[in-house]
Structure formats: structure tokens, C-alpha cells
Write a structure and sequence with these properties.
Chain lengths: 297, 291
Amino acid sequence: MSRAEQTAPTPEQNSPAIDPGYPFAFMDEGAKREIRRALLKAVAIPGYQVPYGSREMPIARGWGTGGLQITLALILPEDVLKVIDQGCDGSVNAVNIKKFVAKVAGVTVTTDTREATLIQTRHRIPEERMTSNQILVLQVPYPEALREVEPSENETRRMHAEADYTRMWLHLYEDIVRYGEITISYRYPVTVAGRYITDPSPIPRWDVPKLHMADTLFLFGAGREKRIYAIPPHTEVIPLEFEDHPFRTEDFTGKRCARCGSDHSFLDEVIDDHSGARRYFCSDTGYCDKRRAGWNR
Amino acid sequence: MEPLIRVRGLGKQFGPGCPRCLALTGPEADTNLCPACGTVVACHGIHFDLYPGEALGVVGESGSGKSTLVRLLHFEWPASCGTMEIHRSALAGLGLDDAGGEGGAYSGNLLACNDFRKRQLRHLLMGIVYQNPHLGLRMGISAGGNIAERLLGAGWRNIARMRARAAELLDKTEVPVSRMDEPPANFSGGMQQRVQIAKALSNNPLLLFLDEVTTGLDLSVQARVLDLIRNLSHEFKLALLVVSHDLGVINLLCQRTMVMKAGRVVESGLTDQILQDPQHRYSQLLVASQL
């Protein structure tokens, strides 16, 4: 059964793990249909923020409800789910969301990026290159990339409609004049398919190039702000840059993960409480575990 | 030589409008407020040509529709009626060749373009200097950034080149280049006005609107700003539309002048002619009241 043909399973199809007190995947079919429709529109207009009626979820708004609603609207019983929170499979929020979806949809869960068919994430894109059979759902706190320069929603909508992005560029110009380079560390604005300036969610700069011409579908959900947008596969995603000040990612030259020895992944800095020594660890724990277990050595 | 822009029947009304609005307002009625429906006829039936390199003056008392005229031509407010056409030679090479119209030497009505196209035209062809620098400048952003804003709008994406251009313009307008990265809020009124002029000139406009540029500046600064405008307009071959209630400014800058009263043009012609031999009663009053 393809994702497009998805219907609510009849009770006898239900895996025994599903909590019988809820409809499949928690949300009612009308809500799922609305979200899928918003997703289709978002894919059709890459980078455009589609408004939708964000539903009440059993977690608070601002804790990943936007991503969760997309996950629930898409999930199938045969899906394999991975949930990460800033690269970590084991954080409380990731574990709770994973348990919840497993309970209401009866899906298998994993920490292995390669095994997963659907990944919900907060603030990171996995290190391993994702394939065309996978979907990455990103949780988004602030979907409006122009909010930094313009507080009014009416005005930012007009700016998007007319592609009037001068003020965003001016913001970056001032940054360079003042500090010698663009100081945005995460939520780095990108131009999607040559049209909309889009917020890639608070992923580090490191992950921004992974959005460009990817094989994977990226879906963005902002539950509190009630917006859905998408970057379809094989879409141009160009970070805002000047000819003489090109975009650059975080530099980890000479640093390695203290756990798996990786010198090519996004690293978290950890300062030892007692000795004050700095150590670095892979931010993507699933990837780190895999390397330690001997994969790709 | 053919005019750079042609403006025909331009008008702007604020309010519901009624069939009697036009008959009940204007210089004869000495008001622009329609007594029947309360509509303000801010300006109506404006008709003029502006030639390349020429300075056209617009004089009149406050409320006569001078600034409204500039705001309509600068696409800040939508016009109620009328057309504005630009000579196609001005659009050549700007990627704006599809500005409408049926071939011929002039584009279609620019006032009917969509907002996106209007903004493009504004960024590529026009500059404006307001009476109040707060309208033309972002006070919290560096002077260089203010100039770069126009350049960024016109598609520039090279910081070093934009800064070189900003420095060049600030130098021309006699603002110390060393203060380029300071916000204009730190500057004196005259300096702010000169930064505004630099900003307006940054994209090499063909058309520059000056809306009461010297009002509020002290006399010596006024003279220097006017001098600067005269030199720059000569150097850059700018077509100027100079709005002022000060006949001295008009006399200094403009070859031709329109006199406005209650939203209508009551007299137009050569500046010397209007100042020496005003025909309309209101122009006579205006000239006579000049010290």
C-alpha cells in the first residue's frame, strides 16, 4: 500500500500493540486529511508556508506538535520510526514522542537512520545521507525567516508575495559590516527553488547543505505557529550569501568525537565539570553508536 | 528630444466619492474637500511631461496636493485615475521591456503595474528625497547600509563593491566617509539630508523626486544642499521633480514650474515667466507674498 492510498485500518488489521481507545495514529481522519492536503500544497510550492488548523496534541505546543501532527498524518502501520532531539535518540522529548506514536500507530521504532522510513527531528538532520524512500519531518519553532527583520505577519506575507527580500539582505549586510561575517549560527535563511526565503528550522549551518538537491522529502511543521512547508527532493536550496562573503559551515578541523573517533560529523562540545577539559562528541548519537559498534571502520 | 515621462489626468481621492466631487472642489471653490460627500480630492487632472535632465518645479501652499503628486509618481499610494508612461529607451537593458503598452516609443501605464513590477521600477529608475529624513532613511541602520539597501534592491550582492559605491556617494554629498558605519540618527539634520540624497542617487536613477528637501534646514545648510543637488543633477543628467513651497528653491533649480492650488494645477510654464509675470490670481498672490 502506498502512502497516497492510505486509509484507516479496520480493527482486525490493527496490530495488537495499538491502544484501542484512540483512532489509528490518534488524530481523526478529517484532521489527517487536512494536514495531508496542506502537505501536498507545501510540496507543490517549495518553501511556501501553508497555514493549517493545528490540532491539540497530548504534548504542549512548542514541544514538537507541528512535527508530530505531520508524522501522525503520514504514518502507516508498516513504517519504521526514528525520533531525534538535537541529534539524540535518547532525550526525554524524543523518547516520549516515539513511545506515543508507537502506542497509537503500532509502528516499529529504531535509532538507525538507514532502517527508518520516517524520521521526526528537532534541530538536526542525521549524519548518514538519507534516501528517496525516507521522509524527514522537522519540528519548527519559528517558521517565518523574515521575522527577525519584520514583526508584522501581514507585512512578511506581502514581502514573500512580492519577493521583496531587500530588508533580509540589508540585515546580513549590517551583520558583516559590524562583525566581519554573518553571525547567524542556526536557523540560517535559505532560498528554496529560487523563490521563497525559508527558515530551515534551527538546524546548525552544518546541516544546511544537506537540504540542497537531496533525495529525501523534507517536511516542516510549526504547531504553535500553524504553518506547514516543505522542501521536495531534488530542489535547489541556497543559503543567503554575498559574492565576497560566501556561506560557510561550522569548522571542526582537528577535532574528533571522543567516543567514536569521527572527524567528519557535527560535534557537541562538552566541558568536564571537574577537570574543565573540553571534549567533543558526535551530536548524532545513532551515528556514533553505529560507528562504535564497528560499522564503517 | 522626447519626454522621459508623460503624466496624463493623474488624480487621487480619499473617501467614498460622489458625482459632484470634482465640480465642488478646486481652486474656484478654494477647497479640496467635497461638501457633498466629504471626499478629499487631493489632486486631480495633473498633466505634464518631464524631459531627461530637466528640473520641473511644483509650488503651492500646504494641502495643495504637491506631496500627494510625488507619492503617486513614486508608487507609494495607488492613483485613483490617470496614467504615467515612460520612454522605452529608459527601460532598455533593465529587463523591464515588458512594461506593457502597444509598442511605440512609450511604455504602458506604469501606475497599473503590479506591486512587484512597481518596486522594480522604483529600484532601477527612481530616487526620492523627503523633507523628513526619517521617511527616507532607516535611522537604526548605518549610513552605508541605508545606501546599500537601494543597491541590494537592485540586485547587488557584493559587499566590497556596495561599500565602495556608498563611500563614493557619501564623498560626493560631503558626508565624511569615516562615519559611513554610523547610524544617521547620530548625524545633524543637514547631514541626514545629504545621506538621503546619497541614498537616492545610489542606483543611478533617471528620475529624482525632491519633496521639500530644504525645509527645516538652516539657511547656510540650505544653500549647500541646493548647490549639491544642482551639481549632482547636472553630473548625473537627472530629471528632477522639485516640490517646494519656497519660490527661491524653485527659482534656483527649475527651468519649468507648475503652480498648484486645492489639488489642481492652476498655471504652468517657464519659471522665469511665472515669477516675473504670473497670470493666475493665486500665482500672483504667491509671488507677491514672497519677501
